[in-house]
Amino acid sequence: GDYQSGHMVALCGIKVLRNSRGRPPLASGRLHLEVTDADGQATTVRFGLYDADGKSPLADRSALPVQRFSETIREHALRFVPASWPSAGRYVYYINGQYDSAVEAGTYTLVINKGPEYRQVVREITVAANETSTVAVQLERWRDLPAEGWYSGDDHVHIRRLDPAADADILAYTQAEDVHLTNLLQMGNVSGWHFPQYAFGKAGHRYQGDYVILAGQESPRTSHRGHTIGLNGKRFHWPGQDYFL
Known about the structure:
Blueprint: E1 28-36, E2 44-50, E3 66-68, E4 71-73, E5 76-77, E6 91-96, E7 98-104, E8 106-113, E9 121-127, E10 132-138, E11 153-157, H1 167-176, E12 181-189, E13 192-194, E14 206-208, E15 211-222, E16 226-231
Parallel strand pairs: 1-10, 11-12, 12-15
Antiparallel strand pairs: 1-7, 2-6, 2-8, 3-4, 5-6, 8-9, 12-13, 14-15, 15-16
């Protein structure tokens, strides 16, 4: 349409027919995946499973739920596909040591990643029809920075925590990316706030081993004067009518 002159063209009488006759169902098997760390303990990881065309099977319920803005998903699309990611696919799952799912029989590329201190695993696997294919992977660590006194952290993560029941899944997600200190920021603007945290200060700290999540804030936050980040505050500060001051 020509929006400047105010003229519009509308196409009428179009019908969309959805054909339910898809391809015949293919034979399927089961994939049982077990991932351990360098010490042989079950560990959380990010992994991808791709066929020859880069397509991924739908995630099973054994994949961890991950928050993406206001929705909870089990299949996560990488915003940027790393050059080392050996597939045309970009969908990944997060698992807490084990994954069990029915998939179409065939050959897949399995990719497993856990932050920058573990070597990436790339393996071709075959799932046979009407059988359970068990795949065991032990990660190899090329550097142990916490042992040297250095811990990874992220000061800018937006995940809402409405109550303590959300903590276990969030901690598992951050462990899969091997981020030891994660600051979950309640984000504000002049009209209100988003990604709320149920508690600030020590009441909002949650630990699992040497991994921790805690509450912070990204506010004041404007397109006029920039964004500010406050970490580990005792409460959320929202200046209300004095927002631009």
